[in-house]
Amino acid sequence: MICREREEDWVMFDQHKHGLLAGEFAEVINSTRFRNGKRWEEALYAVKDHDRGWIYLDDNPFWNDTQDTPYTFMDFPVAVKLTFYSKGLDEIQLNSPYAALLCSMHFERLLVQANFEHPILTKYMEQEQERRKRIQIELGITDLTDNNELIYDLHVLKFCDDLSLYLCLNEPGVDKEHEFPWWRDGFPVSENFDCTEGEIIQAYWRNSNTVELSPFPFDRELTVELTCRIVSKKDIDKMGITEAYYTTKETHYSFHIQAK
């Protein structure tokens, strides 16, 4: 679950729906290098489905008693989270080993950036190394770190994932100073795209419905929708997180993405 706290409520997004939005961005990215890749459709599938392991967890939101908040993708108990990462990767691999390879590499980078140690994490990393080795052999990829198409597709996955999270974790219309801190200085790896000419992409809220990007990475302006539930803290206190979540009607945000 992706959660944003406000004074009287929690804005809560299903993780997989955020992933589907990332896929919408990947579909229109202005990159002939990405679209002309031999495995473009599989890379696009990876972007869309990279968070499918969260489908099962988000069916029933969990409450973090220690922090007095809903559990989110950032603080969810590591043993359970990694189990469902693996389950999601298994399902992706059935449809596309290449997509599973991309997603496995993406998750590894996220976990390394989190900079924590846990015996279960060590076991997960070892299992994923074995998965990647098997897929390398199957696909005839000799070196993961020196495969230009693979690394480029991985950059696209990270950027589209980040941009979708940017829309979820920021209050619409927020000024740059009060944005969620991860992207105040731009989107990492975006300078590697052929459409940005070495510049890192920056995002700005023009108003509560419009986000401007510079340089602009898509082949056209686009309008996207995000579905969430805005769950009252009072309702959570009365009936618990799961019942409060499911008795709250969905809210639909619409955002226009354009060049600055």
- Our estimate of the beta-strand percent is 15-25%
Number of helices: 10
Please tell me what the overall shape is: globular
Specify the structural class. Answer: alpha+beta
Q: What is the terminal separation in angstroms?
A: 31 Å
Largest beta sheet: what is the strand line-up?
Answer: 1-2-7-8-6-5
Could you report the average pLDDT, rounded to the nearest whole number? 94
Count of β-strands: 8
**H/E element sequence:** EEHHHHEEHHHHEEEHHE
- Estimate nothing, just give the exact number of structural domains: 1
Radius of gyration: 19 Å
InterPro entries: DUF3891
Can you put this structure into words, describing what you see?
By secondary structure, the chain is α+β, with helices and mostly antiparallel strands. 48% of the residues lie in helices and 17% in strands. The protein has helices at residues 15-27, 32-35, 40-49, 54-58, 78-95, 97-114, 119-139, 148-169, 233-239, 241-246, and strands spanning 2-5, 9-13, 63-64, 69-70, 202-207, 210-214, 222-232, 250-259. The strands form two sheets. It has a six-stranded mixed sheet with strand order 1-2-7-8-6-5. A two-stranded antiparallel sheet has the order 3-4. The mean pLDDT is 94.
Kindly summarize this structure in a few lines.
The relative contact order is 0.16. The protein has helices at 15-27, 32-35, 40-49, 54-58, 78-95, 97-114, 119-139, 148-169, 233-239, 241-246; strands at residues 2-5, 9-13, 63-64, 69-70, 202-207, 210-214, 222-232, 250-259.
